[in-house]
């Protein structure tokens, strides 16, 4: 059985992430979407909110499991007995950070293989921080987030 871990902050999950998860579902038997639970890394949504959004948004995509981890990704991967880590690459600007992360991870866990998937071009501009920025000022998040979580997230983001 081929499993992979798709790690991230997912603050919140976007249609770009969903696109990557759908592609992964066609490649791997199981995709573990793993939310980093790190008190020192500031996030807008709590871990349980983020996990809830991901669960809702990935319902119906075969082979998806949602989990959380803290500490090093390399340690979590070994604990889960998984060799493949999945990352989305949107643009050249993502490359430097991803290259560094893949190199550190493979130094820490030589059996770890980073698999990069390119989301559809229509999501190349999309990020969780863009979603938070647009939502904060009450802009429409249509097309940026899965329909089933738009209302809840829009309400939480709006400056009251
Ligand atoms: O997409 P993101 O939100 O930038 O995800 C980054 C994430 C959470 C995958 C990465 O920062 C991580 O796994 N951190 C855990 C600590 C770790 O393993 N650091 C070494 C690799 S940079």
Explain what you see:
Helices cover 42% and strands 18% of the residues. Helix 5 packs across helix 6 (147-157). It has a 5-stranded parallel β-sheet, with helices on both faces. It has 6 helices and 5 strands, in the order E-H-E-H-E-H-E-H-E-H-H. It has one domain: Rossmann fold (3-Layer(aba) Sandwich), CATH 3.40.50. The chain has helices at 15-25, 47-58, 73-80, 92-108, 128-136, 147-157; strands at 3-8, 30-36, 64-69, 84-88, 113-117. It is α/β, with parallel strands linked by helices. The site of 4'-phosphopantetheine has 10 residues, from strand 1, helix 3 and helix 4.
Q: What is the name of the CATH class?
A: Alpha Beta
Strand content: 15-25%
* Spatial order of strands in the largest sheet: 3-2-1-4-5
Distance between the termini: 48 Å
Strand runs, count: 5
Q: What structural category do the secondary elements indicate?
A: alpha/beta
Largest sheet: 5 strands, parallel
How many helices does DSSP assign?
Answer: 6
Helix content: 40-55%
| Average pLDDT reading | 96
Radius of gyration: 15 Å
CATH topology: Rossmann fold
Order of helices and strands: EHEHEHEHEHH
**Could you name the ranges where pLDDT drops below 50 across 5 or more consecutive residues?**
none
Tell me the count of domains.
Answer: 1
The CATH H-level homologous superfamily: HUPs
């Amino acid at each position: 059985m081929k499993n992979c871990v798709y790690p991230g902050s997912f603050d919140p999950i976007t249609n770009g992430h969903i696109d990557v998860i759908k592609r992964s579902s066609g490649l791997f038997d199981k995709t573990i979407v793993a939310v980093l639970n790190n008190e020192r890394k500031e996030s807008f949504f709590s871990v349980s909110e983020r996990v809830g959004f991901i669960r809702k948004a990935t319902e119906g995509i075969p082979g998806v499991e949602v989990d959380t981890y803290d500490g090093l990704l390399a340690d979590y991967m070994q604990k889960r007995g998984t060799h493949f880590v999945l990352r989305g690459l949107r643009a050249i600007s993502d490359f430097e950070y991803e290259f560094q992360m893949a190199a550190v991870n493979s130094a820490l866990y030589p059996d770890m293989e980073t698999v990069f998937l390119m989301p559809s071009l229509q999501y190349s501009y999309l990020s969780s921080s863009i979603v938070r920025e647009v939502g904060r000022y009450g802009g429409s998040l249509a097309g940026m987030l899965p329909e089933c979580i738009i209302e809840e997230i829009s309400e939480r983001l709006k400056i009251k």
